[in-house]
């Protein structure tokens, strides 16, 4: 038992891609990126 190897991560990624499809994954990635950007902008605004 231990951390997952690269092969395990590739299999997990393949299964996720098959379940959700590329369009939903792209939308999820876009939403995640916007959330991170918004968080960073909020942190900068608090510093000023």
List the topology elements:
Layout: H1 6-47
Outline of this structure?
The chain is an all-alpha fold. Helices cover 88% and strands 0% of the residues. The chain is elongated.
Polypeptide structure, described:
The chain has 48 residues and is mainly α. It has one domain (1-48). The chain has one helix at residues 6-47. The model has no long low-confidence stretch (mean pLDDT 88).
Descriptors for this entry?
48 residues; mainly alpha
Helix share bin:
over 70%
Envelope shape: elongated
* SS class: mainly alpha
Extended strand count: 0
Contiguous low-pLDDT stretches (5 residues minimum) are: none
Radius of gyration: 16 Å
Distance between the termini: 47 Å
**Order of SSEs, N→C?**
H
